């Protein structure tokens, strides 16, 4: 499975089996984390084989089950860190899908103090549960391409493909409050989702790049 296929296959999964992540899969995920941390200057960390209680706080009271592995999204205190962690976090989510792992992006309702024990970054911007899901999840309700995009003139295929990929992206509370605007080979994206606008912006940008092909456009 490639990243494009992972975009379609990935759905939020809240319940996980007891199957541990094998050492070779952990090694692959850690290698990709190290590569991303070095390239983008973030401090994402993988934590494996832990019990629920130290990290989940009130989230254990509802819906979470069997989660024992997670990514901690953290980085330096710079102006675009939330967008950067959205971008790199979704890159890891989709990579995890390609190697057979399910995931659940969690922005709140977890113990931030517990998460900080496993990261070096100044800014903490959520965690991502990973593991083998009790199911593969289900597609979320989605807006139409016309509701989230506009193009000046006849939209080229790459733009349409990019927009369709963004509609499969996880956004906070599944609001999909973003707008993609294209003209020629220039594209801009804005997000209006309150506290999570910048994180969503990074996620949506990554999805658009995968769907459209980075060689076909430039960000405005």
UniProtKB/TrEMBL annotation:
Task: List residues of the Putative nitroreductase TM1586 domain.
Answer: 3-212
Q: Which Pfam families match?
A: TM1586_NiRdase (PF14512)
- The highest taxon in the source lineage is Bacteria
User: InterPro entries in the record, alphabetically?
Assistant: Nitroreductase-like, TM1586_NiRdase
**Name of the protein described by the UniProt record:** Nitroreductase
Species source reads Prevotella illustrans
């Amino acid at each position: 499975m490639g990243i494009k296929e992972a975009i379609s296959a990935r759905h939020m999964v809240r319940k996980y089996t007891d199957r541990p992540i094998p050492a070779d899969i952990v090694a692959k995920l850690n290698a990709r984390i190290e590569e991303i941390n070095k390239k983008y200057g973030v401090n994402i960390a993988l934590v494996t084989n832990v019990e629920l209680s130290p990290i989940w706080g009130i989230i254990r009271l509802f819906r979470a089950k069997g989660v024992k592995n997670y990514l901690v999204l953290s980085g330096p205190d710079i102006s675009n860190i939330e967008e950067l962690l959205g971008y790199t976090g979704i890159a890891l989510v989709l990579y995890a899908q390609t190697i057979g792992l399910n995931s659940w992006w969690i922005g709140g309702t977890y113990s931030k103090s517990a998460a900080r024990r496993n990261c070096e970054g100044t800014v903490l911007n959520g965690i991502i549960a990973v593991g083998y899901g009790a199911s593969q999840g289900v597609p979320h309700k989605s807006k139409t391409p016309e509701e989230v995009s506009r193009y000046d003139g006849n939209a080229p295929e790459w733009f349409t493909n990019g927009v369709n990929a963004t509609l499969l992206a996880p956004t906070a509370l599944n609001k999909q409050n973003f707008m993609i605007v294209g003209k020629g080979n220039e594209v801009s994206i804005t997000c209006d989702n309150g506290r999570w606008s910048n994180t969503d912006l990074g996620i949506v940008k990554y999805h658009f790049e995968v769907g459209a092909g980075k060689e076909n456009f430039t960000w405005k």
